[in-house]
Amino acid sequence: MNKPIDAALLQPAEAFADYLKNTATRIDKVAEAKAQDDGARVGISRPHESAHLHVAGEATYIDDIPELAGTLHCALGLSPVANGRLTSVSLDAIRAMPGVVDVLTANDIPGTNDCGSIVHDDPILCSIEKHDDGSSWGDIRYIGQPVFAVIAETRDAARRAAARAKDALIIEAVPPVLTPQDAHARGQYVVPPIHVIRETNNGGARGAIDRAPHKLKATLDVGGQEQFYLEGQISYAIPKEGGAMHVYCSTQHPSEMQHLVAHALHLYANEVHVECRRMGGGFGGKESQSAIFACVASVAAHKLQRPVKLRLDRDDDFMITGRRHCFWYEYEVGYDDEGRVLGVEITMVSRAGHSADLSGPVMTRALCHFDNAYWLPDVAMHGFSGKTNTQSNTAFRGFGGPQGAIAIENILDTVARKLDRDPLDVRRINFYGKNENNVTPYKQVVTDNIIHELVAQLEESSNYRARRAEIAGFNSKSEVLKRGIALAPLKFGISFNVKHFNQAGALVHVYTDGSILVNHGGTEMGQGLNTKVAQVVAHELGVNCESVRATATDTTKVANTSATAASTGADLNGKAAQDAARQIRERLAVCAVARHGGDPKDVRFANDKVEVNGRTLSFATVVGEAYLDRVQLWSDGFYATPGLSWDKEKMEGRPFFYYAYGAAVSEVIVDTLTGEWKLLRADILHDAGKSLNPAIDIGQIEGAFIQGMGWLTTEELVWHPQSGKLTTHAPSTYKIPTANDCPPVFNVKLFEGDNFEDSIHRSKAVGEPPLLLPFSVFFAIRDAVSAVADHKVDPPLRSPATSEAILAAITAVQA
After folding, report:
1. What ranges make up the beta strands (E) of 153-278?
2. Would residue 459 show up in a list of annotated catalytic residues for this protein?
3. Catalytic-role residue among 256, 287, 332, 768
4. Helix/strand/coil (H/E/C) assignment for every residue in 508-554
5. I need a surface site. Which of 16, 94, 772, 806 has the fewest CB within 10 A?
6. What is the model's pTM?
7. Residue 231: which of 522, 521, 525 has the closest Cα?
């Protein structure tokens, strides 16, 4: 007989509702209130600046912008073949369909037919060209590749016409290459291989492995993940006078969209205006891959001289755009009797897709995060970005970091089982040291290591040891249901790997009534960036947050911006906005002293008041006086992250300004007859430095945890092995987590401490690092499966650990 499970653990919706009611208990409201009374506007939990608009349904997304008279709608004609030669396109029947205004091909692009982010290998529309042998054909690379664009009076008319693509295209098909292993076997890559080698002993990793008392050799499969942003890809292009173009685009990188649209239209950058007030989610999927839609809409609007909107259907979004890279690993490890890693060699092969996109930087970050929180004395890492006939994979929250780190976690989990040790003990013995054993494989010194203290605190607060003993007792009496528990740590580097991307600009305007407007180069995708930047400006000028308004990201206001990615949004744009606000505050202080006496350095701005030479004036009064005295009441700000370096050839340097740390303990229960499982409890302790907004940061941690859990457990991408079609291209077949998948016990806390580096108010980035926290869920499932054979057999569990994968691992362990 199996022991009954506590009914409360099987009521996630009700338990999660109770958890939401008690959110405030995780934040020290007394301390926050005192800080706010003292004039602090950062470190305070404030609601998202658009929360009231979201709830009321008034927040404006691209599709909510009132359409101008004469607006046309666009849909894309997609290839029904994964690999082959396009030899003919016949569009007359499509042009004749009701409501169709025009059908565009690559020949209608006045400029460059390319939207590649780094390597120029990604055509906007497939084009038929003459080749050296005299033949004419276009290169078909994947099912879903755009070949033509239908422009119609209505969106439905455009989509109906575009759906006739199969009848309009003649393609000589050849078998597709679909898996990273197949691409690797063929030596077929989108960028050259990348290698990171660190040798501390004779013979390097190979020698250390050969000399080690114990050896481990294995492979691992980790699947990809669809971003599944709630707002799909969309662009709305409006022609302007003199041939210019205004593009409203749901994008994380307005400046890149500006450049690519300018190239496609053969215009200068100053003739293209890209604007984005907010996105309904991005997660990396709108960093580079919003480009094709911005370009197509702009080309159509340019040719027809009418506004054109291109909004993708969810199925088309799946079929056209890429996602998180799946990885295949082959590794060999040498370790000692305590589980200490002595040497490791690993080959990582990603499914890059048909073009380079961001696969090179993703692989670089994967290699730079393989170490995670562990010192690896001798290591040889090899990264290959396999070219496949699938959608071109791209950025996704973590940007390769999770794919790199999960490999070493899987290795240590297996090592612990081989040695019959607690996995936490094996992880701990391999942690980076404080003053020694603290250099990464890419030669950055880890100077801010807090992983020892953080993990010790979580181990105690989660009752990890007692629960592991209790779980062992449960499993010994339960034949069918097995429970598992795991603690997984993380160390995540913060900064763009490319040095020059680590810069940002901002504008701050103070109006004569004391109200303030801030514009910066970051984009708001629901993560609360505008809220944090507004708090920074309010703090710097000593006003209430309600006085500060953030406006749409706009290439006509702050130029040459970097993508809002790599978790740098608040770090970069917060510092730039602080710089602008500080300049205004200093001018106001000088003006106030000129009128009222005293010393500028003694003037205090706080709580909408200005204290100068014994007098207390309202902020608006001081601003009004400054205007009368012709003092500049606006300023630009700029920030460039200091101390970064990276040698791309040697794969070494200091690519990260600092590291964020964290750890999670997860407990699961698995039905060994069906492979079904449930997350019973999660305890998280995460390092956000001195948080700018604890409530927003906790929300980001929770969201990243559940999103990462989906990647590792339920979100499975399946391509048909013969046709190459992505079969899981809709919510009916692709399963993201829901509220019911949240654990009934979900304890999330911020680790107390400042950033060692001079980040914005000593905070730390919190967008991407927490996505590594649900490693603990995957390894808790692995622990439960291992319990089937009393932890004597290492489970061959692949990711995502769907019920089918779990059942297969259970069967293997039982055998």
Report:
1. 169-173, 194-198, 214-222, 234-239, 245-249, 272-276
2. no
3. 768
4. EEECCCCCEEEEECCCCCCCCHHHHHHHHHHHHHCCCHHHEEECCEE
5. 16
6. 0.96
7. 525
